[in-house]
Amino acid sequence: MRLTRGTDYGIRGMIYLANLSRGHVALVRDVAAAQDVPESYMAKIFQDLSRSGLMISHRGAKGGFSLGRTPDEISLRELIEALEGPIALLPCLDPHRQCDRSPTCTLHHAMAATQSALIDQLDRTSLRSLATTHA
Description:
The protein is mainly α.
């Protein structure tokens, strides 16, 4: 599994917001500049995160973006899935697909256990812990 550059940028942008005071509204250009990301690319990523509810888009003269919930309430899994879609190490592990071989496939069983461990770790990793670690 390899995350896209957009997911990396999105997570970094969310970490930036998590390090601001609660309720602070940040301009895309400020976040993009701080993270060395093209502003137009960051704006697109932030729109995706806004649609997922992890971020709030504020319009108008004092517009910008803020977190949709507290950093403690946002998991790394939510961030990844908001930008990448459901985590599935194999096509047969995608919750929207079915595979007739799954009940007897040894690869399916091994990868299902691996995916479960990965998801558990991502669920336990909060945005707050990332912001604290990378402040």
